Amino acid sequence: MGTKRKLQMKTKVCGLKFTSNIEALAKLPIDYMGFIFYPKSSRYVGEELDVFCLKNIPKGIKKIGVFVNEDLDIIMFKAKKYGLNGIQLHGEESLQICESIKRNGLEVIKAFQIDEEFDFEKLAAYRSSADYFLFDTKSKQYGGSGKKFNWGILKQYKGKTPFFLSGGIGADDVKDIKEFKHEQLYALDLNSAFEDVPAQKNKNKLARFLKEIKMTTKNKYAVDERGYYGQFGGAFIPELLRANVDELRENYLKIINSKQFQTDYHRLLNNYVGRPTPLTKVENLSKQYGTNIYLKREDLTHTGAHKINNTIGQILIAKYMGKKRIIAETGAGQHGVATATVCALFGLECVVYMGALDVQRQAPNVARMKMLGAKVIPAVSGNQTLKDATNEAIRDWIANPESFYLIGSVVGPHPYPDLVTRLQSIISKEIRKQLQEETGNLNPDYVIACVGGGSNAAGAFYHYLNEEKVQLIAVEASGLGVNSGETAATITIGDVGFIHGSKTMLMQDEDGQITEPYSISAGLDYPGVGPLHAHLAVSGRVSYISATDQEALDAAKLLAQSEGIIPALESAHALAALDKIKFKKEDVVVVNLSGRGDKDMETYMKAFA
Question: Which residues carry this modification: N6-(pyridoxal phosphate)lysine (predicted)?
Answer without folding.
Answer: 307
